[in-house]
Amino acid sequence: MPQQCEQLEKPRGAEAPVDRVHLGRYTLGDSGLEREVLGLFLAQIPLTIESLQFAQSDRDWQVAAHTLKGSARAVGAWNIAHLGLEAEKLGGIGDREACRSMIGRIEAAAAEVESYIAAAFPDRDH
């Protein structure tokens, strides 16, 4: 993979758990669509974490980590995207302790994103 694809830099001004400016480029600023896309992202995260937890091969781990990285990049969840990249770099399930630690970090970042989304869209369940 080319060096530029390996690096993941958080854009300037992306301090929040979700970069709404980035997301807005895809939703054209439609807050209803943002809410829907972020809801799909939140629904997908636990499934991807479960795929990491129960990965039976290095390939299973790599696919789940890559999925996490890509979906997080799409919505501007840069911290989760970075963790997905780090998970990919683990190379697989050989070091179970490192995998467990990574999953814990991803779960913490996901909780932060979920809290942020709940605060940003307090009426999202209505």
How would you portray this structure in words?
- The structure is a single chain.
- With 126 residues, the chain is an all-alpha fold.
- The chain has a single domain, classed as Four Helix Bundle (Hemerythrin (Met), subunit A).
- Helices cover 72% and strands 0% of the residues.
- It has six helices and no strands.
- Helix 3 packs antiparallel against helix 6 and helix 4 runs antiparallel to helix 5.
- The longest helix has 25 residues.
- The N terminus is likely disordered.
What key phrases describe this protein's structure?
disordered N terminus; mainly alpha; 126 residues; Four Helix Bundle (Hemerythrin (Met), subunit A); 6 helices; elongated
Brief summary:
With 126 residues, the protein is mostly helical.
Using the alpha-carbon principal axes, give the shape.
elongated
CATH architecture descriptor:
Up-down Bundle
Helix percentage: over 70%
Mean pLDDT: 89
Computed structural class: mainly alpha
Distance between the termini: 43 Å
CATH class value: Mainly Alpha
- Reported by name, the CATH topology is Four Helix Bundle (Hemerythrin (Met), subunit A)
Q: Tell me the series of helices and strands, N- to C-terminal.
A: HHHHHH
State the major sheet.
none
The name of the CATH superfamily reads HPT domain
Our Rg estimate from Cα atoms comes to 15 Å
**What's the total number of strands?**
0
The number of helical elements comes to 6
**pLDDT < 50 stretches:** 1-7
Number of structural domains: 1
**Percent of residues in beta strands?**
under 5%
